[in-house]
Structure formats: structure tokens, C-alpha cells
Amino acid sequence: MSLSKINLKTLLFLIVSALFVTSCGKKSKTTTVETPVAPVTKAAPIKIGVLHSLSGTMAISEVSLKDVVEMAVEEINATGGVLGKDLVTEVVDPASDWDLFAEKSKELLLEKKVSAVFGCWTSVSRKSVLPVFEENNGLLFYPVQYEGEECSKNVIYTGATPNQQLIPAAEYMMSEEGGGYKKFYLLGTDYVFPRTANKILKAFLLAKGVPEKNIVEEYTPFHHQDYQTIVSKIKKFSAGGKACVLSTINGDSNVPFYKEFANQGLTAATSPIMAFSVAEDELRAMDTEFLAGHLAAWNYYQSVPSPENEKFVKNFKAFCAKNNLPGGSGRVTDDPICWAYTGVYLWKKAVEKAGSVAVDKVRPALYGLSFNSPGGLVTMDPKNHHLAKPVKIGEIKIDGQFDVIWETSGLVAPEPWSKYTSPNKSCDHVNHGGTYTK
To answer: What domains are defined for the chain?
Structure first.
């Protein structure tokens, strides 16, 4: 074979090899460029609902509860969120309309798919949404003192039961320290809480030997403004001395009531008012000059001296100022605000303990849980969905704050069913599935 043929074969081999290498190189290069890189995505946030009246007669009280829930969410997100996820609020306005509360709760649970709801003030609003939460296995954190006689597995009650507010207040008024009062005018707004509260108060007073003639009950509608006739009755009732008012008036009706009380010359010295629904937030809208000396029974006051509370008050004022909320840094805290805030943190702790936002896992994780709230250390009862907490009597000061003039020595265990009206009933979600034991 000639050298030229050998060279030709070699040349052809070299050409084919070069083309193969080039083709492979191009293919490899193209594949590398076109391979997509998976984007880094953040975990979807956890949604919670806020169900408070931002308009209507109850806005005077409920707007601040919405604000403090959002503050708690901001704090939690700043420290890593819950289960590594941020919280977002779905806020709705039931506008002090009890039927609308039910509709808005359905919206939160069924459309917004929230993991928990923080809301309601009046008992009629809570009663309105109760079937919605029970039928759809939702979880409502209810932050306001109430009349008891309820035991729902779908509600966590962070406000006071009757034995944590109503009864201690009445006992105080009857005591020598509280003035030794013997006549009681029970005045309230005409709905569930005042009527049931007064049923309990009347049963208590009768059990303590107060004659029925020394107990008067009267009710006014929501948003009632004219108290001239009623205050005249109270003035006549108080004429003989040793008479006081136990008030369950709710919302903006408190403003004309206290004003008329002062206009007719009644004072805390002649016939003190013990209020169950007036706190620092309501006093912002009232002329406190004529309210000084009147009383309220709660489980928390802004004036509570503790590092936790001082931080809470400071943070709430700063939050309101930063977000240009009405009142700004002049805003105050009060009992329902405290327990609305506490509810969010109790839920957070329970979710982290359960490792899930599922209601059926969060609920048992709450039992026995403690939290160092702005009002002090509180503990969720291991069976009945209510908090053990201290009880305090406060006296209104000119500046709209309260002097704590009496308090329990420790935590008072919650009793959802009053022994004065329902002595054979109790609430036990652990041993009896939430049924009432008789």
C-alpha cells in the first residue's frame, strides 16, 4: 500500500474525530445553558382571622382589639414567625351587626381558610358565630369577660368568668372595706351578657341575705343615649344611703350615662358605680373629671407595675404611632386588649407545641399552657378552655387610669358555670368531651 493512501485514511480519521468532538462539545455546552435552576421560594404564610367591629356602636371598644392582634403578629414575625412561617391577618368588619358576625366568620373559615380567629366582644356576637365555628371545626379566641354558662370545644375564653369578675366585685361592695353597701341597682344593655350576669348577681345577693326589694334591674338598648329618667330613678333609690350601681352597660352608651349621672349630682361618694364593661379605652372618650372615684372590676389594668406590662404599654403606644392609628402614642391598654394579645401568644405556643395549625391538634396543646402576660402569669385550665387569672378592683382617676385598690392574693380558677345559678353543672373537655356534667 502506498504512503499516499495511508495518509488519506489518516486524514479522513482525523477529520471525523474532530467533527465528533466538536459536536459533543456543542451539545454539552447547550445542555448546560438550558438547564433551569429551581427558584428559592419562601414558605406560604399562616393566615389568622380578626373578627372585630370597626364601625357601629361597639367600635369604641373593639377597634383596639384589632390593633393589638396586629401588633402581636408583627412581634411574632420579627422573631421568626410560627413554625418558620410568617403570620398574616385577614381583617373583616362585622360593623356591630350580630347577623353580620356570623356571615363574616363563615368568610374567614370557608373562604379565607384561616387557621384561627381572634374576635367578638359582646356575648350576642359570640353566640351568633358559635354554630359556624362548631359546624366547621374552627377555633375562636374570645378576649372579653362574659356571663359563663357556655362550654364550646371551639372557643378559647381568655376573658373572665363570673367568679373572676362579677362575684368578687359584688363581694367587695358588700364588705366593710368596699363600703358595706346594702342596695344594688343592676343596670345593663339589653342583651345576653347583662341579663345573664344580673341573673347571677341577683342569685348571689339573695344568697347573701340582701332583700329582694333592695335589688333593682333595668336595661336599655344598644346605643341608648338618654339616661335622664333612669338616673332619676337611681337617685331616688340611693336617697336612703348605702346604695350602689352594678353596671353592665356596653359600648358608647356609657358616655351619656356617666355624664347624666354627674349632671344630676350623683357621685362616687353617694352612690358609686361598679362597672364591668368600662376600662381605660372607653375612658378615652369620656370626661373623666366627673368619673373619679367610680369603680371597675377587671383582671388587668394599664397601671399594673411589672416589666412585662411596662414593655407592653410602651410597645402598643409605639405601634399605634408608627402606623398612624387614631390616638397615636396617646393610646391606652386595658383588660380586653391584654387578653386579645395574650390569646395570640397562647395560640402560637400551642401551635409550636403541637407542630401543626390543625385545630384538633392545637386545642389539646393549649391545656395547662402558661404565659407570662402583661397582667402576670396566667394558665389555661387543663379541662375547660378558660384562664386562671388574678382579680383586681380599680378606682377611676382623673387622668383616665385606675388605682388598684383591691386584688386577690393569687390566681382564681375559672368557673364557667356559676354555683349560684347552675350548681350541678361543670365543663370538662378532657373527660367528658365538653359536655356538661350533672
So the answer is: 46-160+304-389 (3.40.50.2300), 164-298 (3.40.50.2300)
